[in-house]
Amino acid sequence: xxxQTAIRSGSFKQxxxxxxxxxxxxxLAGAVELMGAPxxxxxxxxxxxxxxxxxxxxxxxxxxxxxxxxxADGRRQIGGFYLPGDICGLETGDEHAFSAEAITExxxxxxxxxxxxxxxxxxxxxxxxxxxxxxxxxxxxxxxILLLIKSAQERVAAFLLEMxxxxxxxxxxELPMSxxxxxxxxxxxxxxxxxTLTLLENASAIELSSSRRIVLRNRSALSxxxx
Amino acid sequence: xxxQTAIRSGSFKQxxxxxxxxxxxxxLAGAVELMGAPxxxxxxxxxxxxxxxxxxxxxxxxxxxxxxxxxADGRRQIGGFYLPGDICGLETGDEHAFSAEAITExxxxxxxxxxxxxxxxxxxxxxxxxxxxxxxxxxxxxxxILLLIKSAQERVAAFLLEMxxxxxxxxxxELPMSxxxxxxxxxxxxxxxxxTLTLLENASAIELSSSRRIVLRNRSALSxxxx
DNA sequence: CGACCATTTGATATGGATCAAGCGATGTGG
DNA sequence: CCACATCGCTTGATCCATATCAAATGGTCG
Lengths: 227, 227
Hints:
Two copies of one chain form a homodimer. With 227 residues, the first copy, chain A, is an alpha+beta fold. The first copy, chain A, has two domains: 4-133, Jelly Rolls, CATH 2.60.120.10; 152-226, Winged helix-like DNA-binding domain superfamily/Winged helix DNA-binding domain (Arc Repressor Mutant, subunit A, Orthogonal Bundle), CATH 1.10.10. Helices cover 41% and strands 23% of the residues of chain A. The first copy, chain A, contains eight helices and eleven strands. Chain A has helices spanning 4-9, 28-35, 113-122, 124-147, 152-167, 179-186, 190-202, 219-225, and strands spanning 37-41, 46-48, 56-62, 65-70, 76-82, 87-88, 99-102, 106-112, 172-174, 206-210, 213-216. The longest helix of chain A is centred in the middle third of the chain and has 24 residues, at 124-147. Chain A is elongated, with a radius of gyration of 19 Å. Mean pLDDT of chain A is 89; it is low at 1-25. The interface between A and B is large, with 37 and 37 residues. The first copy, chain A, binds a DNA duplex (30 and 30 nucleotides) through α7.
């Protein structure tokens, strides 16, 4: 397997990164598929680190990625969870603002940012999509802020509804992340997350089939909590 | 004075918005100066509302603007403060995600987004700057998230250091916003903000010359708090 | 001067953190 | 195949930072 270091130092072949696509008006998604180098990461492996040059972006193919920052005293804030189809590591600055790790075994497409920026310079549609992508991320982070001012119940309910939209088959959610990850995403402790889930179960809003599998029994009750 | 409604309905002349600049490779800032329609807002006047079409963006010329959301139960979260030179209301989606109000008497330049997007379609440099602007906003909001997981002292200290960078003449800060605005920005109550400021003053980290004027006496003490 | 609003200060309550076990699933070596 | 260690999660007891409720103070403007 290619190591992350190998990718960063450019010591492997970037398939087609140096070959501009033959036609203009090329979709970003298509470009990513063509220019992206497939890569795998083991559970908990670092994909990129905060402060490292943001030379690559990463499209998740399978598995789940978390981005995070660790404060001086060890507190960790998870910035977001990235599921298949999502792109993380896209920055306009020189350095990654967050670190990223594979939560589960992951396959990602690694794309050189400069290649995409160069393509954007030739193709306005790609430029627009790059902008839109950053805009969506902005919107997501703004929503995250609203989460962090709510009560524990509201945060957990909002989290469940969000995950239901993203990973659910019907009403069942298969969570790829641990309670600690959820806690660090919601700005709570692991104990509070656990207690709140139990509370929601007792209120028949959800059912904890197993610790990673949650069934939404009463979405409107959850939405109601979601003030 | 032009009303906000007049602007939105396009019932006034957009200076030069329909006249493409004569040369390409035009700076975004320059374009904004040329295409922007000057407009004034009184203290507490609404500049745009959450959910309204994001047809315009706003460059602050003088005064201070706050963006915010109000939750169903009345809690308000301030997304950011915009000082002269800052641009707010720039979205990639169709609608404004936040509302915006003038904190003080404000002069802004109002720019039609479609005009800027059209310009970006002709000028890669403008396109890149538009993207970068959204990227900076993303970075700012990400930093805001980190604020919200800290202790009251850390939040207030971080706020003071941030404002010092943005509005200070030396070590003195002239705050344009009320304690309530600060509280809603930091996710605290007004009482906690007030108490924390008093605490910092007693610790000789700051001096409260008046409620809106704060002198930083010991920046390293504040930074130390800023975990 | 007096009314009003913003801010500070005080007293008390409480939601979530912290500290500490207990429990259940998973995996490992004997 | 089972005893046992390990890890992730839950549950319990207590504490504390911040919210809430309430009152006093101060600054501003008519």
